[in-house]
Design brief:
The structure holds two protein chains of two kinds.
Chain A (H helix, E strand, L loop, with lengths): L3 H15 L5 H29 L5 E9 L4 E7 L3 H21 L4 H19 L3 H10 L1 H11 L7 H34 L4 H7 L6 H18 L9 H7 L2 H26 L1 H28 L3 H22 L2 H32 L4 H4 L3 H4 L1 H14 L6 H14 L8 H27 L15 H19 L2 H14 L8
Helix pairs in contact in A: 1-2, 1-4, 2-3, 2-4, 3-4, 3-11, 3-14, 3-20, 4-5, 4-6, 4-11, 5-7, 6-7, 7-9, 7-10, 8-11, 9-11, 9-12, 10-13, 11-13, 11-14, 12-13, 12-19, 13-14, 13-18, 13-19, 14-17, 14-18, 14-20, 14-21, 17-19, 18-19, 18-20
Chain B lengths: L1 H9 L10 H19 L3 H25 L3 E5 L3 E2 L9 E2 L13 E5 L1 H21 L8 H20 L3 H12 L1 H7 L4 H32 L4 H9 L4 H22 L7 H8 L2 H26 L4 H24 L4 H17 L9 H35 L14 H4 L1 H15 L5 H16 L3 H26 L13 H19 L2 H4 L8
Antiparallel strand pairs in B: 1-4, 2-3
Helix pairs in contact in B: 2-3, 2-5, 3-4, 3-5, 4-5, 4-12, 4-15, 4-20, 5-6, 5-7, 5-12, 6-8, 6-12, 7-8, 8-10, 8-11, 10-12, 11-14, 12-14, 12-15, 13-14, 13-19, 14-15, 15-17, 15-18, 15-20, 17-18, 17-19, 17-20, 18-20
Classes of the chains: A mainly alpha, B mainly alpha.
Amino acid sequence: MSWLLPALVLVPFAGALVLPGLPDRFAVRAGVGVALVTLALAVLATYETGTTGFGRMQLEVRTDWVPALGLQAHLGMDGVSAPLVLLTGLLSVLVCLYLTRVGPDRNLVACVLAVTGGSLATFTALDLLLFFIAFETVLIPMWLVIRIWGDTTQPGGTATRNDAASRFVLYTATGSALMLLGIILVIARTGTSDLTELIERGGAGMSVTTQTVAAGLIVLGLAVKTPMWPLHTWLPPAHTIAPTAGSVLLAGILLKLGTYGLVRVAVPVLPAGLQNVAPWLGGFAVVGIVWAGLACLTERDLKRLVALSSVAHMGFVLLGVASMTPTGLQGALYANIAHGVVSALLFFVVGALKDRHHSADLSVLGPGLRDRLPRLGWLLTLGAVAGLGLPGLAVFWGELLAIAGAWQSSALGALDRPYAVIAAVGTAIAAAYWLRVLRLIWQGTPPADQAGLPDATHHETVVVLPLVVATVVLGLLPGPLLSTTAGVVRLLLPGGGVVP
Amino acid sequence: MLTDITGTLTGVPRIDAVALLPVIAPVVALLLVLLIDAVRPVKPLLNLVTLAGLLTAAGGVAYLALEGTERSTACSIGVVVGTAGLSGPSPLPESLSPSDVGFGCSYLVSDLTLTGQAIVLVAAIGCLLLALDGPGAEDRTAHHTLLLATVAGATALAGARDLATLTVALETATLPAIGLIALRRDAQGAQAAVTLLLTAIASLGLLLLGIGLLFLATGSLYLSRIADVLASDPDEKVLVVAVAGAMFALAGIGFKISLVPFHQWTPDTYAGAPLPVAALLSTVSKAAGLTAAAVLLGIGLPALHDAWAPLIGVLAALTMTAGNLVALRQQVAVRLLAWSTVAQAGWVVLPLAASGTTRDGVREAVAASLGYLLAYVVAGLAVFAVVVLVARHHRAGEEHTLEAYRGLARTEPVASAVLAFALACLAGLPPGVMGLIAKVVALRPVVDAQLWPLAVVAALNVALALAYYLRWTALLLATTDQATPRWRLRPAEGIVLGGAAAGCVGLSIGAGTIAGLLPDLLR
């Protein structure tokens, strides 16, 4: 099955290259086809990996690419990458499907597929430099999505849009350039860029200082993407401006690249270095949780609010990583997937609302929404309730485990329990701001000029349905996903992740 | 036998014509061009001869590379002039090798030589094709002879292994550019030529002073001998003189590569020159300057690394930062290119700042420089090809601003795609993998030597440069209501566009080429 992962990565790229040459109507449908093939390959790859065990690297292929740098085109899949690959495949299908009716454009679909391909390459790359190249590959397509198809009705018009697009790309590029320094340092000191070998060594061959410097640089670069407070300021404008498809990709897939990098590279390759960086990472994470929560309490633009809540959710993921415990890491990976599903759902719904009202302002959308547009109202309610971490829905488990991980963490030192407590307060704030949103959309009388707006079409319902199902299933049955990541997480942590 | 005797008696070195083919071919072509011009100036014939000269030189490089043996030529075989009662010159005693008494070879065919020559020739062929029908080539004879002279100088430079040859070759490579710029025959062209002339004189002065001091300190013009003397723990006074010489020589070369603060001539000259000549300046001249720096520092002065490396580091950081900051504000396409060229020059010399004193470290740093140079030259040619085309079709001509590119993707999708890809390569962002690998290669020695301030400045410059490359790319895709006429692509321009695009894609897929230059000993 060695063809499986290269095919998985190359199919969407091939689609992205071919589609711009086709007529719009046909190209958009072909895009769905390409995305479906990708998803099928992702499912097949996950199945193959699962049958032989998620705890080890499976389906490995490697071939020399740049021998002088030791760079190999080396792909593989295990329990950490499999859920993210599935999520990417699923979201790519849904976004392409969404685009068949709403603003079909062959170039936009091509960009979506390019982002998909780049993300899949990142999630399966087993070479540090290849990981970096794949990580950077998503930048330009995503920049195009914001820059070309972005919303120009915001105050400032095209200038605001261009500014949001540039801010996204420049923040991320600065972060990744610094990360590149860290990566080069690791390669220069160990003489290899092979991730499997680097993970096996677990930092052997590098002094603690080297590891700390490299971990600092790599974490910094990934933290911009994740995003971590206070480096998150590119995210709200990007989400506000991006079209629905862009927002879903950004929240559902791109943010995951950052956290995946932390789990795949920073934790296992530089354990001693990350130990030193962890208290800082955890600190910024909990500040981000509270800060973003407080900002959400007063935010009027619903799209911006969902974006800011992403910063809070990703804060939990970062906290889980910083704890460097199996529980915390499991929580981080779970919260990662859960956030991908829930935020994608929310952005689809908010996008649909915004298309109808030509505004995402809560005072315009809000009053009587559930009465006017019952289906969209319910979907938004589900997303909001999931977002506030209600037990039985997806987000709950990940954040619970992340807090539990922080509580018992040794990497965070004396700060472990304070961080856990602050994060717990953050969940309360999340409840507060989502309940505020719910109050606004459940109560009030709808203004007369907004009678007669259409509710969710069948097409929109079909698009979000898989996400609704995933939200509920991940909430009720956390077992399968947790057992998928359980085996690998122990391998990734120093000393098998035994808590002393 | 006869040649041996003449050699011994007069010290006339033997010449290996095959080894010198990349230098001789352009010179022969130059003479032929002059001859044809005198007899009967037929335009196609002039073009053909020039192109044939360059292709022959390229063929020579390819042959020598395939042959794989190291050739050296123009070697002094070491003649000791009358001492101890002997009258007349006598051969060197066999116990001494020529290099022990200050002699060596002036020209060497090594990996370094061939790589430098290959880059120069690729760039020169591209620039020639761009110029064939372009502005500035009305006076074809003048243009072609000057271009060939530049190329001859640049190829000789790559093989030069003594200070005199190095200086002469460097000046041969850069001085004709003044004439090329003056070919534009308007006030701006004249001003640009004068600017460059003054710069060239100043830099030649510095270079000569530096070389004089180096000769004074070491007693030899041959780089290998200089390296030996400096490596053998010389007197402190010798070191001081040698370091001063290295600094002056470096400043002289800095003008050619337009390192800040020796860069002031660049933007005016680029804007004043015909576009294909600007392309020549930014590729061939830059390659020549970099090769000179690599040969001088990497082969002659590795022992003085501690003196020149910090200087190079500071210059590189200043160059890329200043270049990028000013480029951010440029509106005229060719001026933006000029400043971005300045910034890229910083990247090209960056690895030299961290070469260390070990032979392998020096080799890696020089290889990194050349690798970056190769990526830069290929991407730069692609950008210039599109800019030349836009200049020909836009009413503002060579002065066109970036606005001329608005909506180009709709009318000229292929050229726009090439430009966008080349800009991504220059920025070092996928899909321009070539540029990304080049940046990795350039940063590697710096990170390895833990020069963190330099590394961080370079990393931040990636984002700075990205800002304006993306601004340009965005314009290509912007919507416009202006109907622009479709282009008429001339064959020569098509070849450059296609070739450079193929180079960008090919080197992105086969990025191993960029990273794997100079695998063997640096000689």
